[in-house]
Amino acid sequence: MSISNLVADTIWQKIESTHSVTDDQLSILHFIFGKNFERATRIFDQGGVKRISGEPSGRSIFQVVGESRKKEEYLCFPEHYCSCYSFFYDIVNRGEELCCKHQLAARLAASTATCIDVKVSDDELALLLSKL
């Protein structure tokens, strides 16, 4: 794991422990993630993050709105995967970014406990996941 990831993980843990974020923490995350973090905060500020949880299992995935005019919705696991094009192009293929704006928006919403929670049956969640 890179030093940048270690620093970011430490910041995320502090945010998760208090469910709030300071200006200093925002500055550090912006330094690490750059323009993707700026874009993620816009998505976050507009309430573009849903956590879809299956019942009764409690398993969940995030659905994050894109910024284009089409307002696509991407499914993501904040620390591991996003269904957007940028994830595959910039992160997986080229290795130029640590994560995409959708992952960052989901992580920020989850860490501050401010995402929109949607409950579905485990069967509905499985169907949603089968489309990945």
TrEMBL record:
It comes from the Eukaryota. GO terms for molecular function: zinc ion binding. GO terms for biological process: double-strand break repair via homologous recombination. The keyword Transmembrane helix does not apply. InterPro entries: Znf_SWIM (IPR007527). The keyword Zinc-finger applies. GO terms for cellular component: Shu complex. Residues 62-111 form the SWIM-type domain. Keywords: Metal-binding, Zinc, Zinc-finger. PANTHER family: ZINC FINGER SWIM DOMAIN-CONTAINING PROTEIN 7. This is Zinc finger SWIM domain protein.
